[in-house]
Amino acid sequence: MPEVIKQLPEQVANQIAAGEVIQRPASAVKELMENAVDAGSTRVEVRVVDAGRTLIQVEDNGSGMVEADARRCFSRHATSKISSADDLYSIVSKGFRGEALASIASIAHVELKTCHADSAHGFQMNLEGGTTMESLPCAMEVGTQISVRHLFYNVPARRNFLKSDAVEMRHVIDEFHRVALAHESIHFVLVHNDKELFNLREAMLRKRIVGVFGSKYDERLVPVEESTDVVGVKGFVGKPDFARRTRGEQFLFVNQRFVRHHVLHRTIMDAYEGLLPRDQFPLYVLFLTIDPARLDVNIHPTKTEVKFDEDRHIQSLLLPAIRRGLGKYAVAPSLDFEQETGLNIQPLEEGRVVSEPSVQVNPDYNPFAPQHAGGGLRPGRGQLDAWKSLYEKTWNADTGQGVTEAQGTTHRSAVGAGFPEMPFTEAESSSARPLFQLQNRYIVTSTKSGLILVDQHRAHQRILYETLVRQLESDVNQSATQQLLFPTQVDLNAADQLFVLESSTWLAKFGLLVAESEDGIEVQGMPVEGENTPESMILAVLEEREEEVAGVSREERVAARLAETMAVRVGKSLKPEEMVDLVDRLFGCSTPVLDPFGRTVIVTFESNELEQRFR
Ligand code: ADP
Ligand code: MG
Which of 46, 186, 347, 525 makes the best surface tag, with the fewest CB within 10 Å? Predict the structure, then answer.
């Protein structure tokens, strides 16, 4: 038998390791920032160009390295942080595997400049794909600067896998946030394409959180602090009324390391039980401190997963700590947690003047006025054909069942259950049929074979959703918009600002016009139909952050969120002509029976059902 096993060259081994440690530019940002923190820096500046594709540069004022260390730091398993396996149980540094620099160097062009206090001058090295191309003395203050250019230049598969700059930059910002939140005593700066996104000076944790998320967050935070001999928890949780429908703002740190821990996340969510609807996520920035001997951080190459000796013990500290925190701030009843709905009323501070909430409205605006309905939207005769074809598609199938709804937790925009009967005959589809409103919520009307109830809010959502999606798909770059006389400023943190601005092109298709402003964005125009404020529209845009969920694009999901905020509210009394308009337009939709989130819009009572009842 010929021998077949050979030792892989170090370069190849490094590239393989890089596959696990460096998945995208953000991973390199994380590793370099962590090295700067480990080096005892008090100021760390991160500069990226093209979301890190072209350049990632991290400069610190930490210990620096002497020449011999600098020459060694790119070798695999080269670390100053541990020297024996036992040290693994007393880790206080971020790094210890000695893999990051070797991995990064193997897949990029790297320049290192470093100067140690004991050295007479700085030292510089240039590497390409892990090979040292040049090394020479340089002028440099104490500290280290590492520049990573052309990441993945020799791994095309990885390079091609990268998402748009906007998405990659969001990952960079996420990693930056994680490190910055964990080390409030270090000054961090993040610059993207020469624009300063964050400049977070040394601060107390609360101020750091506000620096990261924006000044509005100050009032949303509730402090949490509790400890036992074994474990301590400290940090802030968000008041329930500011919870979001995305999980973006949840941070758990263990010994100042950002971790994902499903069980503890659950515990934190459990603390909010009864205070939040199921699909809402509160903010939390919590720090657990635990004896490193009781913790295994070495179960994953990126070290974002950890194992504890005693999950239980930690859970039993965490849950009451958060409840007490929420209780103290009167956002939760501290004794009785059985409450069905949130009790978010806060005691009024003495001397505080309460002003009426102000809402911007256009008093002359009628959402149902025909001129607002948009071109081609008014249902004509054709609507019944659309309805009929849906009816046929849905009920004439062999199974006799409705077409199954698309998968997805919140999104079921596909065709849903239909009716056993057509609700109207052609002749009846005029304003002649009797209509009335029930409980300012349902529109009740008769059909040829019974009675139907339409949920006004959901019906309007469906109508608006289909309109928005149609606008999205059209060639028109900017849909009809209500120009605001005074553009409204919406304060956003840098990450959210980026998020909204990157969407501005397709938001214009919805008629929502946004532009960059100093502390966030400026809303210059809004869709003509619907009840909403610039703030609520922007919040709706921020609700959906993932590119694609269950095959539904972000654009479409934002359309659904917008439709939700724009739709006529439950509790609003409607004029007869508004009801007729709403019902007519609903039946002009391709899927009138479900709102964009898959909830029932129409309930029918067939005459035979009614007869049954009268027996
Ligand atoms: P690890 O962080 O796991 O030790 P790395 O590959 O990230 O491995 O870094 C290797 C070594 O290089 C570190 O242990 C440290 O001694 C040195 N080093 C890396 N970055 C810096 C820096 N910014 N300042 C000082 N020393 C550094
Ligand atoms: Mg490291």
Answer: 347
